[in-house]
Amino acid sequence: MKKTLLLFLFLSTLVGQAQEYFPTNSGVKTTENTTVAFINAKIYVTPTQIINKGTLLVKDGKVVSVGKNVRIPNGAKTVDLSGKSIYPSFIEVYSDFGIQTPRQQPNPNRIRQYEANRKGYYWNDHIRPETNGFDSFKYDSKKATDLLKAGFGVVNTHMNDGIASGSGVLVALNSSSTDAYRILDTKSAQYFSVNKSRLSRQAYPGSFIGKTALLRQVFMDAKWYESGNAKNKDLSLEALIANKNLTQIFNAGQTNLNAIRLDKVGDESGVQFSFVGSGHEYEDIQEIKNMNATMIVPVNFRTAYDVSNPYLANQMELSDMRRWNQEPSNLAVIAKNNVNFTITTHTLKSVAVFQKNIQKAIQYGLDETKALEALTTVPAKLLGKSSEIGSLQNGSYANFLITSGPIFDASTKVYENWVQGNKHVLSDMNAIDVSGEYTLSYNNKNLNLSIDGTKGTLKNGTTALKSKFSYKDNWVTITMNNQNDSSKYTRFVGAFDDNQTSFSGTIVDESGNESSFTAIKKSDKKKASKKKNSKSTTPMVVPVTYPNVGYGFASKPKQETILFKNATVWTGEKEGILKNTDVLLKDGKIAQIGTKLRARGARVVDATGKHLSAGIIDEHTHIAIFNGSVNEGGQNSSAEVTIEDGINPSDMNIYRNLAGGVTSAQLLHGSANPIGGRSAIIKLKWGETADNLVYKNAPKFIKFALGENVKQSSARVNYRFPQTRMGVEQVFTDYFQRAKEYDAAKKSGKPYRKDLEMEVLAEILNKERFVTSHSYVQSEINMLMKVADKFNFNINTFTHILEGYKVADKMKAHGVGASTFSDWWAYKFEVNDAIPYNAAIMHDVGITVAINSDDREMSRRLNQEAAKTIKYGGMTELEAWKMVTINPAKLLHLDDRVGSIKVGKDADVVLWTDHPMSIYTKAQTTIIDGTVYFDLEQDLAKRKAIQKERSMLMNMMLNEKNNGGKVQAPKKNLNRANTCETEATELN
Amino acid sequence: MKKQLIYSMLFFLCIGNSFAQQTPASKQTKAFSIEGATAHLGDGTVIDDSLIMFADGKITFVGSAKMKIARQGTVINARGKHVYPGFIAVNSTLGLVEINSVKASSDEEELGTMNPHIRSLIAYNAESKVVETMRPNGILMGQITPRGGRISGTSSVVQFDAWNWEDAALKVDDGIHMNWPTSTTFRWGAGEGVKINENYSKNINELSDYLDAGKDYLKGSKSPKNLELEALKGLFDKTQKLYMHVNGEREITDAVHFAKKHGVDLVIVGADEAHKVTDILVKNKIPVVIKRAHLIPGNNDDNYDKSYKTALHLVEKGITVTIGLEEGHVRMNDRNLPFNAGTYAAHGLDKEEAVKLITLNAAKILGIDNIVGSLTVGKDATLFISEGDALDMRGNILTEAFIQGRKLSLESHQTKLWKRYSNKYKNQ
Fold it and tell me: How far is A762 from chain B (nearest CA, A)?
């Protein structure tokens, strides 16, 4: 790596534009070594080091000298740039310029692939750090022209393929030269992405949570390999290790949460990534800031939605309309929060809008100096190339822009973009502006001509005449229609005089007769009043809410001291139901229960006629998880993944569950494989960050699954083991046997290869992690208990457990709890014997039973689901209520903190308008840790606010459309439900 | 594939042999008098301390228990309990599919786009294990509806205690089900917007032409015979209704105009946005089969209780509303129909109006209100007694149920298993 770098440094310093030691066969050998001096320019050596009327001296593609008093050597070519400015040209950090992305491998049989395609490399085909972008680089002159026009001088490019996608190439956009000069670095950075390689169909990882797990393992393996303990050769790991001192660039995709999670993976692995961001970092700016990463930010502002048809527009969501309004302010927010950032053209359909979008960002409050830094010094530093690019210090490459004025002004013209001392003309800076009002005289006739730049209009008096005008290289041609007969023309052709105030030439009339004409300037064109002042009025940006969707909070809600007076209290403890009782919530805890309570500073709520209970706990749900992060089904075991990597804190189902009195939930991995992923146990704190939803010091859980899903009963092709319940048993036995051996090796003190999956399984064996297993029929329930017995651990919970009633005695003996549906059955063969009396039977045998949802709709009615155990099986009301409160708390080992109304427990309570299990009840107020997260009155206010904001944004978009702005079809979100069965979206 | 076939066959053998439905009750021979219950008549009225009597399958008396009148036959003391007319599940696929994921057990959707001639009745499995679990929740009748296509087929109304489909039929071929096209299109995937469906008018015209062709055919010699068009007859002579499955406000409006143009009796089914076009529904007296309350609103900006309030918004305008069990819904959950009605009541609808949704209104819409739907003298004695409020899970505990005066078994495959395993542990 260093060698190649040195080689190129050598090449570019010693050699001029003609490759010096190459033989010449086309004529006598000449060596070009002209010095060019740009004088009288306003020179931005860096965004903050500015020289007025300075001189920039360029030789051999580099800056020789820059300053106010630079001596211009004899023989130097001088370019006078009075009134003009010089800026360092921009650097694009993230691009696939000149590197073709491979085509997706076909999958004609649509068979899921488990094995890797390669040998001698990492076991997973999507880890390809050995890819050298340089190997497939081919300079793309056409794209280079676009980038040069946008102001870029240097591009950092790479092969955009795979989760670890290899190293990149740094290229100067020196189109008139060769790769020998313009390649600045063949290993400029190491790249990562959240997309799998197109060169392989290997199924793993199929989810975002699988990708984070894989990356953790990769970095662990690299350490193991580096320590020399590996027995095999692994070219991928060798490359990863070799690239470790490069800048590490991660394209995190469209979600801030991805970057935030991946930054954590980096922290755990000792790697600091720079992230290609989402373009809406402002929504999570505090967390983005805490990452301490350089953000590479796209400026792909969405166009307004066409809301002229209300029928289509109604299908849109506020959050999308808001993003249209808020996105242009993203860079300003990032800059104000002192996040280190650079700007990329990545995701722009056309680079041509780049400058315009930067101007827009400035209009929305981005500081101009910060913008310039983000395009020059910041990316140069990020790439470790500050001495070569990004500024115009002595010795830097002569990569600079010549402009008519401030670079980010809409009216500024960029004349030239010089790269490595080679000039690319964008607009002719010597072209003379002949704009003005002229009188054109011929054959005793006078017409008026008004010229504006290169456009001109002929008028008879003030009436415009049909005509065509052109002005180029000092020559004017006009073709004028006969105003009555459009098939006849009169033509003028003439040249400007030296003083540029008149032009004259020949006129050819409709009949072909030639004579002469003159045009004399009457007045200069009145320049359209510069609308520069509009910059001072920042456009209206609607405020961000927490989360930034409908029903979000204007500011995060605060903990309160609340005193409920005179409620019917469902304690869930041995006290049962207490009538006319007061409950005090203080410091996030249940502080007092009693009568005639008083508390200074407390907000008193009259709860007469109302019921107060502990918040509902859903033992089994998949809400608040990003689509595609529920199941990592690419392998039989995915113990290495954790749902905590896939939490979506702005899922509307959180809010809707709060409206159903739910305060805590276990977010479970799906049931695609026997050994699933680790759970996230959360409180439904609407508006909080993903991390803050998760219980602190929560007990550790993992999801297992049995039956039809794991044996792929609904798959079209059956080829993956296991296909039967017989095979499922062996999968568990095999994994636990290996985990046992792994744990023994680990405890022996000898070096061992750290394996995330085995670590998690060993936790189960060591009773540090609990198992919740998806289960249906009695045979498999019994089987899993026996496997656990064999390895001396316990299954903590069977979830679904629809035939639990058939083996309740055995379950009791094993000490396992049950979390089941109230009345679901008949949706597949294995639930044919499921009965709604299941919960009651298991409870009567002495098992701790909970009722769960596994469904985002049912979860908001879990109080009703609990009530069904009264109907089916005759449970008492008190016991029925426990099935959605203290019992799930017990199953989750959280019963010391939540699940009942008891002094000292977390203040997670619900005030109900009626008996909590009545069909007619509503959750009036839902409180978590003493903070109100849902309230019927607040909800009404939010509805009004949503309507108001929707119509305001729609009017703004209509305004944009009616003023000629671009629009796109309204966006609709298919809010797909996550269930156990939800496969990851990219199963290939 | 072969394996699957074998599994399916095995599965059917199982069903055929050991799991037949409860034996249907025999014809009512002696009278019953239910005394002292709170009677919810189904038409919106309640009689506290009521007396309901029925004989020969028909209701003979509905009034106050205070009336000094001779009690006929067996007297059931139902003090503290509630009596309701049998609930009716509209737009259901009960009996057409036994287990969702077992394809061999599914008979709900035929190939083809225009299937008016496809009749659900003959595929209705009167011995379905799923159907028998409806009865203990008070659901005693259902409209069995085929799915799929532009015209899905013809539904029939059945009662849930019969030896076979023929005996089950309450109203044969009650209506034809049509899926109205959507005026907007949307493709899943990033960046895809909602667009106008350019084929919308074309799709409507195809339907229009089809009905016109039917009319012309029926007026002509009918030779050669056209099974499809033949099946449209009932629409034009108004012996059958047109059940239009349609959701958007524009679509509902267009469907109403369509029905008027073709002179057919329209029922709107689905009706997500019916609350936005109540004027045209009221004006044309169009009844509506809404979806269940237990649904997630479609748009994140929607109120959390949007689907809990659909009934209220239509009933308060005077529209005849019932609850349908729309497509995509797992049919075993049809037994929660009363609790859906209860949810509507929880969110603003009058409780007796909520009862009416799944009794008299359903009967009216299906055209069977002359025989069922309310506790009215002369109607079928299809009713049940519940320990408490049947719209509430805690109260919906049936003690007796009758269809056409026949006293039903309230057992099912599920209660048998319950008892079998409860006894197992008791005896251990």
Answer: 36
